[in-house]
Design goal:
The chain has about 250 residues and is an alpha/beta fold. The chain has nine helices and eight strands. Strand 4, helix 6 and strand 5 form a beta-alpha-beta unit.
């Protein structure tokens, strides 16, 4: 496999066309496949990923990126930003907004009636009572307390290493990570190449496999199809769940 500007232009136009047709209800969902970001940038692409582009067209602020297996669902409080900027982007209001979207998606998209959500801390040991960072005390805990009063079943913040290391994740329907790699590294280890990326909070259903382009294995007939297959299956499940809710809302 190799990169070229023309390939980037074709990829960008394909994504835009697929989104346009889905917004027109010509399709029930869209499954986006891996694409080289550098090629898209060369073609004039202005977004760090599919998620941000689709959200921009749909005029949705702060889309929720969820990576999942059949049993584990990880949502991200921040997405594609440098690690040094994460703490500046973690505001109480934004965490509340993302957690509310997460809870709603677990109900309407995944069919979980009473979802239970865990929140991971930003700092090592979840800040160690403020000795290793104050964000848990100043931002994350106040957001969790507000959400609890709103009757969202949410707990935390938990130290990320122990939470995954001791398999505490098995006790929750959703896990809210504070930044990209905090959530995606353990999820991808658990998924073993079968995970799915889903963007919640959009007017369209969009899923994708949880891996990149892997140009180095192009033409070798060794690619694993399971993540793409699961992305298609999850899109079908989410469309079905949303239709069930819509039907119930319109029953006279």
């Amino acid at each position: 496999g190799s990169e070229s500007k023309s390939a980037g232009e074709l990829a960008a136009s394909s994504i835009e066309k697929a989104l346009d047709l889905t917004l027109q209800n010509k399709f029930d969902a869209m499954v986006t496949l891996p694409v080289s970001k550098s090629v898209l940038y060369k073609a004039g692409w202005k977004f760090p990923g599919h998620t941000e582009m689709i959200a921009s067209v749909c005029k949705v602020k702060n889309p929720l990126m969820i990576l999942c297996t059949d049993k584990v669902r990880v949502g991200l409080a921040t997405i594609h930003i440098p690690i040094k900027e994460v703490h500046r982007n973690l505001k109480k209001s934004e965490i509340i907004n993302i957690a509310e979207k997460f809870s709603k998606s677990l109900k309407s998209d995944f069919g979980i009636k009473f979802p239970k959500i865990a929140v991971l801390g930003l700092n090592p040991h979840a800040g160690e009572s403020g000795d290793i960072g104050k964000e848990e005390i100043t931002t994350i805990i106040p957001a969790i307390e507000f959400l609890k009063k709103s009757r969202i079943n949410i707990e935390g913040p938990f130290p990320a290493d122990g939470f995954f290391g001791h398999e505490s994740f098995k006790n929750y329907d959703g896990i809210l990570a504070m930044y990209h790699d905090q959530g995606l590294i353990p999820l991808k280890l658990l998924a073993k190449g079968r995970g799915v990326n889903f963007t919640a909070g959009l007017p369209v259903v969009r899923t994708s496999p949880d891996h990149g382009t892997a140009f180095e294995i192009a033409g070798k007939n060794i690619a694993d199809h399971r993540s793409t297959l699961n992305a298609i299956k999850l899109a079908t499940i989410i469309v079905t769940n949303r239709n069930i809710i819509f039907t119930k809302m319109n029953v006279k």
